Amino acid sequence: RQELLGCVERRLRTMTADRQEVLRLRFWAGLSTKETARVMRKGESAVKMLLARAVADLRERCLDET
């Protein structure tokens, strides 16, 4: 578990600002997709795509690493 958290932290630092923000707003702040879109000034579909790509990146990099 510690190893996985470390990987996530390392990956977050290398992600684009948009991907970092979408993860922070959705998972840490607990905002809905609609609320996240409003904060980021993007459409809901753009937020969904950003989130999907960010999560896929974390899964690919961190699950392979652990």
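The above is record 1. Record 2 follows with the same two-line structure.
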Amino acid sequence: MPPALSKEVTPNGRKAGAAGVLSYPYFKDHVGWWYDKSPNPPGNDGSTGMEGPLAIPMLYGSGSSDAQDAQWLEDWKFRTGPTPPFALGMHRPDRNTSYAITPQTAAQLWKYHLAELGKKGTSLGTPAVIASSDDWWLNEFRHMKLKWDWAFTAIHIYEPDLDAVKHHIDRYFFWYVKVIWVTEFGCRHDPARSVEFIGSPCEDQAYINRLIRDMVDYFEAETRVAAYAYPDLNENCALCAAIDENKHALTESGQTYLDAISKYG
């Protein structure tokens, strides 16, 4: 594996990022990029002379789930400005909710809205699936006629220990042989491992803090990981959220992430 494998698709040469508009103001001095799931996030769009973390556009969904989804798809169709250096595919299309998108529908969206950017020089990221042991969705998607291949594989990793995180990186790189953007990560309780952990480690703030630090250190050292970002909120772990929406401030987990990435820039 080339030692500089991840550098060509690392925004601003800095792996750490922010996944959300709420936490971005706190993290902005120590991240190379951020996104808010919209097609036009404010800030540095990659234009000559622009400074600060790159604002990465996302083609969020099919436009059929709710008003926000529909508006974002409409906004994407009428995007203006320079060709972005990077763009992200759909957000969790594999989830079992109204936001689910079939690989076939996603491939059509990719061809019409992302492939053209790829031809102009944009590095494209896959639809961001939730890392699992049987990733049927992305496997089907890659066999569609996409017109333009992706430059990096985007995944969300929610696991209760670092070994499981490493296992996902190993598998997704083995399957697709593309560098990885971990566009969300955090702690998630796995009921199947309750005996191993004696309950849920994601209810222990000290454990969560240690896991965040370990994950950041691992992502920074791992050449197959080109970028990573911690999310504003975590629906699986209340203590893991980066932002306290009531206090409008960083949580202990958010502060831990900030401290961890500050070591690297």
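The first helix runs from residue 24 to 27.
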